[in-house]
Amino acid sequence: MSETTRQERDTMPLRHDEELQDNPVEEKPTPLPISQLLCVYLIQFAEPITATVIYPFVNEFVRKTGITNGDEGKTGYYAGIIESAFFMAECLSVVQWGYLSDRYGRRPILLCAPVGLSLAMLLFGSSTTFWSLVASRCLQGIFNGNIGVAKSVIAEMTDNSNRADAYGFMPMIWNFGVTIGPITGGVLSNAGKRWPTTLGRIAFIRTHPYFLPCFVCAIFVFLTFIYAFLTLKETLPSIVEKQRQQNSSPESRLLDHGDTMNYGTNTSDNSSSTSSVTEDSSARPTNIGFRAVADRGVLTTMLNQTFLTFMDMCNFALLPLMYSTPLEYGGLGMDPFRIGVILGSFGFFNAFFQAIFFARCVRRFGVHKLYTFSFSTLLICFGMYPVTKYFAQRAQGVDNLVMACIFFQLTAQTAISMAYGSMQILIIDCIPPGGTMGIINGVAQMIGSGMRTVAPTYAASLFAFSIGHNLASGNLVYFILIGMTIAGICCTRLLEVKPQQRNG
After folding, report:
1. I want to staple 330 with a disulfide (CB 3.0 to 4.6 A). Which of 1, 2, 309, 474 is the partner?
2. Cα-based angle 437, 146, 231 (whole degrees, multiple of 5)
3. CB neighbours of 140 closer than 8 A, spacing ≥ 6?
4. What pTM did the predictor assign?
5. pLDDT, tens digit, 9 for 90 and up, residues 255-302
């Protein structure tokens, strides 16, 4: 009896291990490094604010430079050059920032951005000629080009259990930024006329009416630099390991030295070998990183990144365009205030929705399924344009049924932000062993910035062409974009689903 009991007791751990393998216990998420994430979020927050603060006054600013010579038709053209210069410069600089961060560390590269960006904002606000506006706007784009480095930092300070939580806040940061930026630019521009008894007494404010909103943004960005300088830590694995070795206690180094002597190892050779390994670990990722871009998994992920950013930016450009176009030309005929209220309300709702539900959806459905579903909702977004247009023309205005269509369309659009968070995780997971995270993230961000530059012009031109020639009753633009979305959905099948995701 006792022998049987002993055997059962001895086999219990084995049975327990087998049960754990069949029914693994869900791992609790690792606590997020709040202070470190806050630094990165604040640096990211600077991009949408500085990108959009000029929107309320850029057209007026262009007129005052005299570049149009009084021709109002040229105002939009020159304003478009200024707006596009930001994203074009960002597109051309992101890979270089990623390369530098892989070589010299994430922290110094991230700290360069707010300093340069604050100076660029001051230059923009104090400019008096058109080409100085373009030059300072390009500088803003260049110093915002390290947004890919920020994404690398988030990946390196998190792991599979909490990475979705960290990325879930990124859409909220962007939505808040694109909301606060235009408000800042609209309220603080022409401050001398708006507050003549206070700010109007300052001669520089009177002669440079658009300096104040740029100055406020510059101050915020510089305060971000101070906070990041005091709290942000290095996350590049090779540098972190080197710092760990340098900070190891003298007792540990003495013990290591004693062990090597007992085994007859040459101390100088061991030190030389360690130094060589450290140098290789910091140099090797840069060499491998550029070749890693040609990896099949990276290429297919970048292809999906291209489809996502291009199609989403087409939809982003069409929304206000279609809503503001008169009814007789296939739009809804809304005024700017109503459009702003609708899109602004949606932006705030979407921000909180992502922060609350994105990580839960990733854990419930997986990154690949969530991305495929989220990207597929673009079919609803593009498909609702002709439906909404039909009901608006039938009602000769925007009635409750049209508003219901708009609500349904914007609700579907909420999922697109989840596609961005999912795509960022897919980008991190596709990096091959020895690949360079900074360069890969830089390439992904370069694609995103490039699509932001090209897609709005493509969608707006296709919209005008469809209506101007009454192609498919003016709906050809939507049918083409639906077809392109279907092609993007097919490309999601090329994504590699790895059974084990890499940890930060």
Report:
1. 474
2. 90
3. 50, 51, 86, 89, 117, 120, 121, 124
4. 0.71
5. 444 444 343 344 333 333 333 333 333 344 444 556 666 778 888 999
